[in-house]
Give the backbone structure.
Amino acid sequence: MTHHILFLPGDGIGPEVMAEAKRVLEWFKTKRKLALEISEDVVGGAAIEKHSVPLAPETLAKAKQADAVMLGAVGGPKWAQMPYDKRPEQGLLSLRKELGLFANLRPAIVFDALIEASTLKPEIVRGLDIMIVRELTGGVYFGEPRGISDIGNGERRGINTQVYTTSEIIRIARVAFDLAHKRGKKVCSCEKSNVMESGMLWREEVTKLHAAEYKDIELSHIYADNCAMQLLRAPKQFDIILTDNLFGDILSDEAAMLTGSLGMLPSASLGAADKSGKQPAMYEPIHGSAPDIAGQDKANPLASILSAALMLRTSFDLAEEANMIDTAVRAVLNSGIRTADIAAGGIKPVGTKAMGDAVLQALGKLQNNQ
């Protein structure tokens, strides 16, 4: 079976880091005879420049037809003054909405070779491996009413609505509980049910689903502010954190920095499978477009490369090949090769392409040893 992948490099460092992920996948096509068909298009600011919109209809059509989408990053100061509904970020939000990507999986893993890159003490983060399951298409980012209005007397009012339904909560909770069966059988559900009705509904629905179908999973509940504190105090107490769109956005970035660098972490955004079993999916590094270093061969491509591994494992059930990428990345880090964001102790950093070269060399060694 041929797997069709659409690359959307986007803006800033997106094209640079995605180029290295593409080289890794091309290596698997050549060396492992994987049936991968890769096409490419534009999104975000790049799409604005080409099509005058952040996501062209023909690009969306390609994304819907693909078996998986690999996204780089969107946005930059060039488009910062545009209306919200026309900014590059709208291209990303539209992809999530139109593809029905309601579940965002964000792992936070500390590599032994990078323990010193974390700002926390080594004993706090050593061996850390947690997963944040974030609801992605509901909540305050999509709720109505929203907007800014003039209310007279020189006053304006900004409104965003936090809203969730039973079905939205249940479907994301199922993702977390099902994933827990493959991990530590432990889910911590995070909300603010003490002050928000949407949080109260979230807790009630997650609790009912757990009691009805997932009694073998350990379920706990935590308020979002306490969760933020606990991630700094004792992050290894968590295995899977289940949370909504807003809190997931914030907490996943906090969890990422426990690892030492946003440049190291992949993510997956998944939708519901159709009748044929095809599941829409988009994979992306969690770092932004980093326009300050774009085009300078400084960006860390490992998060994009690891996103490719996550894609092979999750969408295509190619665990062996995904494990090869993970192993190659660990080997590169253990050898002391670093990009600037993870370099320390006088290590001279390498560039984006050189890091990609190192991963390809490590893959070659793994191939030869098999």
In short: Residues 14-31 form the longest helix (18 residues). Residues 190 and 243 are 5 Å apart (CA to CA). The first strand starts at residue 3 and ends at 10.
